[in-house]
Task: structure prediction
Amino acid sequence: MATKPKPFSNHNPANLLKPASLFYIAIGLEILFMISPAALYFYSLYGPALNFLDQWSGTAWLTQFFLPHISTTRSVVLNALPIVGGTSLLIGIMVFLAAAIQIYNAKFRHRGLVTNGLYRYSRHPQYVGLALLGLGALLLWPRFLVLIAYVLMLFLYRSLAASEERRCEAGFGNRYREYENQTDRFLPVFPPWKSFAAIGITQPSVQPRRSWLVHTIATLMVCLAIAFGLREYALANITAHYQARAAVLSPALLSDHELLASYRTALNEPRIRQIMSSNTETPLLVHVVPEAWHLADLPLEAESVHSGHDTPENFDRRYYKVLFSRVRSHQAHAAGKTILRSAYGIQPLRLVSVDIRTGTITAAVTPPAHVRWGDISTPLF
Result:
């Protein structure tokens, strides 16, 4: 990568309409969109977008999660993904900042072409950093919508990198072309494996617009197919029990006895008996949560003290909170596992606290209508 031969000026409003500037704006908006769930105040803008998509069956699936967000599973790989995501996010931030410091230091000192440091190994380490940051955000908040945004962002990086390289070739000539021949565009790839590079982002050639579009759509389809497969794998590895009109699951790794004992004990609560007897159509989703756990993504507490998760491994396995909710779904007659596949949200009905050792109900209340950041789609498993 190099400093620009002609500094870009923002004083001319027309510059904001140049293709490169539009790419930067689009990338900035995508990054804000992808990381927005990490901060409460972003939901004032993020929430309405999710609710808008939830109105139709053809778009409601976009707001759903394809990986566990609140659940501990029987899969070591799935349980490790949040750690991988957090690590990727932090490394991405550091790589991006380090690359930016190199570039702007060279600009201020008028040193011209930058080929040392991170730029010795990659012509665009700043995009590598942003890609790692986006991957981390995707693994931490794995909605289908975020996956689509991430894939599109990678293709935007590729196009913007090609545009910048053409400008650098025009400004630095053979010196930059020599640098191009010696350095990979994004990540160093051993020659035997270059043909297998992911989505072709290491290829230096400029593709025709139609080919670029076909390549993008094909990559999106493959990634979505993988994501749907991962969701099925995740649903097979969480603690769950499925019935014709109810899906019972736990974010904790419980035994079948603990899950069903909690559920069956809660069924004896008078209001729950009334709900079950009158509910012949709408599917129910039942969450069994250890009494000691706090999950901000489920409406379990009227006064939530913090927005994160508190899920101690050593909890008392006698006491549980059982949340009964009506499913928000465009499949009115969903049954079994399809209840969870089709649900884009829940309408909380009753929260029952149980002691499975004695088989007694210790409390029963009406739960909050929604989580602390509003009535939006939140992770269900």
Remarks:
- The chain has two domains: 13-235, 239-365.
- Residues 239-365 form one domain.
- Strands lie at 239-242, 246-250, 284-290, 294-295, 309-310, 319-328, 345-355, 360-365.
